Amino acid sequence: MINLEKFEVWFVTGSQHLYGEETLKQVAVHSKKIAAAFNEAKHMPVQVKFKPVVKSPEEIYAICQEANTTTNCIGIIAWMHTFSPAKMWIGGLKILQKPLLHLHTQFNRDIPWGSIDMDFMNLNQSAHGDREFGFMMSRMRLNRKVVVGHWQDETVVQQLNVWCRSAAAWHDWQGARFVRFGDNMRYVAVTDGDKVEAEMKFGYSVNTHGIGDLAAVISNVKEKEIDNLVEIYNSTYKLAASLKNNGSQYQSLRDAAKIEIGLRRFLKAGNFKGFTDTFEDLHGLVQLPGIAVQRLMNEGYGFAAEGDWKTAALVRAMKVMAAGLPGGNSFMEDYTYHFEPGNKMVLGAHMLEICESIANGKPSCEIHPLGIGGKADPVRLVFNVAAGAALNASVIDMGNRFRLLVNEVEAVKPQQPLPKLPVARVLWKPYPDMQTGCAAWILAGGAHHTCYSQNLTAQHLEDFAEMAGIEYVLIGKATNLPQLKNELRWNEMYYQMNRY
Ligand code: MN
After folding, report:
1. What would the pLDDT profile of 226-269 be if each residue is shown by its tens digit?
2. How many CB atoms lie under 10 A from the CB of residue 318?
3. Rounded distance from Cα 322 to ligand 1 centre (Å)
4. Separation of 201 CA from ligand 1 center, angstroms?
5. CA torsion sign, 199 to 202 to 203 to 209?
6. pTM (2 decimals)?
7. How far is the CA of 97 from the centre of ligand 1 (A)?
């Protein structure tokens, strides 16, 4: 469902007319070569397109305007091979609406010690040309990513890769539609927020449909369609005995399939990229959607429960960032703790809705009672999640700003079987340690709902926060509480002074 290959980032090189035709030709040859190398780099998720060298305020303005209006252009990589007086960039940078990466590189890796002369010096002067450009962006208070290093250095390519993925997710949010079935869970604070401000800041809209609108679509699902999906369940998962076609709860499996088909149809018809539901508002649905949500998330839809539209949108964004990478991203909730000395950890899960993309092995498809919601027993996929590096991310509404909070964690293998736990689950140890990680999260107001990622790094989310122009707080290996408290206080001041 998510394909990044259609997206383009533009490689724009700045210069000026001062150097004469010969030098400018050489600049263009070098730039083309660099852009082509990035475009062909193995891990580059999008196309990198060379654009003609810009040498005047008019050319710079025109390329920025063209980037704004080119649908598939998700951002600009800018590099000053020579000196490009930065007042020329003011007009263009003022109107540029796409993310900007400043690549601080140089065509030659090494100084040619034996042959270097003033011609070489005049051609290869990004060491100071890029400083002039950097000043202008700082002077204009523009958020951008700065990547430093030789363009053939693998770490440079990797940083571009990360930024391109974040830019694709940012692009995906612009004009995106998210639907809520029912409202926010009654009285819950952190899942709520300002949807008008979110649309202004993030570009996506959130609108509500009564659950009856969805129930009507589900009621029109044909028996034959249900047969087909039940067959897919049967061939994809380990079906519990009672759900098999002669089992006592076979009808519940058919009900679950019917919900999935109707839900997918509703999302497609409305061109929605994600959704929320709530167990408090299920009129017309026989069971809370479980397997349906787990499978739709796996297809790329954003989801969060209890009306949590901010997390649903974040799940979608992180799925776009991670498109094509091994591992997955899922809606998650810090559920319960293991406080054993020396082995403290969090058990993450939800009532049902953990994305299949993070499953370790073949999930089992089971049915169990659900204590809340007052509906029939819901069908769900149950699985464990592999050990390894991971993170949790959360967007909260602080009233005058949004905050993106990230906690790096280490997932651990379940050390004991959990035979009676009827939901998918993950075990992780937060960085820098359980006490500090959890205290920092609480102090920063992080939600109980998150997006759990196995394949994104904090860098993806930091780049994304820069594009959105929102606060970013990382809780990682280097976090200490006094420093974090100060950071939160200082950020408070910054965002009071820079509201728009
Ligand atoms: Mn929840």
Report:
1. 999 999 999 999 999 999 999 999 999 999 999 999 999 999 99
2. 26
3. 23
4. 25
5. negative
6. 0.97
7. 35
